[in-house]
Amino acid sequence: MTTETGDRFGPFREEADARGIPADDVERWLGMARPCVTLTRADEAGPVAGRFGGPLLLPAEIPDPGHPLVASVDLAALPAGATDLPLPPDGHLLFFALPDPDADHSMGQVVHVPAGAATVRRDPDAWNAARNAEDEALCASYPEGPLRAVPDVSLPYHQFVLLPGEQDAEYLPGHPLCSDLVEVWEDTEESIAQAGPFRIGGYADEEAVEFDPVDIAAEAAARAVAAGRFEGPVPADAADWVLLADWSSGRHVRGREGSTVHWVIPREDLAARRFERVFATVFWNP
């Protein structure tokens, strides 16, 4: 963590001190901070780095996606070093999702369109070949418009980790006061980090967090592989997965208030640019 980033956490340190949390525990917690990029609506500050919605443009060899387009992100427009993810340096990432919390398969996908690639315009409704009226109504409220990139920082929102192969959980190892520290972050985040509907990297957030949504998604991916609904193999250890992006879909989608979409991917696949390995989950707190 750089000095600049460390100074940014002044409000966090002050609040933690006021609650009597030992400085060693605070600094150990802040050592887990991750850089990320928050994408805000265009009336905020920062360079335009993508957009919600827009025309669906894909290389001819890429099949029509099975989910509606949410957003596209111009990787070259992201601030240099703004995340700790091994992202491609340029091109566009297109994020697709349908916020169905009851699905037992991936509810989204990501496509990387390399810089300079020839593209053709696609039917944005091709994903809904069955013309499902409920899904069509959900997508009618998807947001549209430019997004601006703000370099940001993220701390954990969750307190527990799942134990592999067991139903039990434990507090984050090495952080006996993690419950208190999560509460401090909840109370001070507004004064430290930028609010926005879309985030690249960092820690996964949702309306009610106990377990890391990345851990939940990794388990869901493994179940989907076992059921033949996602192509395996996938890493068994959730630590091998990373959050690619979060979308606070409940801010926009009528009928899904309180929902969040998480796009996760094994870090090894991200480094190799195998974006077909993305698995998307939906949390909904109706």
Q: What fraction strand?
A: 25-35%
Q: How would you describe the shape?
A: globular
Task: Indicate the percent of residues in helices.
Answer: 10-25%
Rg to the nearest angstrom? 19 Å
How far is it from the N-terminal to the C-terminal residue, by CA?
A: 37 Å
Q: Find the count of extended strands (DSSP E, 2+ residues).
A: 14
Number of helices: 7
Strand-pairing-aware structural class: alpha+beta
CATH topology: Hypothetical protein YwqG fold
Structure characterization notes:
It is built from seven helices and 14 strands. It has 286 residues and is α+β, with helices and mostly antiparallel strands. It has one domain: Hypothetical protein YwqG fold (Roll), CATH 2.30.320. It has a ten-stranded antiparallel beta sheet. A two-stranded antiparallel sheet has the order 3-7. A two-stranded antiparallel ribbon has the order 9-10. The chain is globular. The two termini are 37 Å apart.
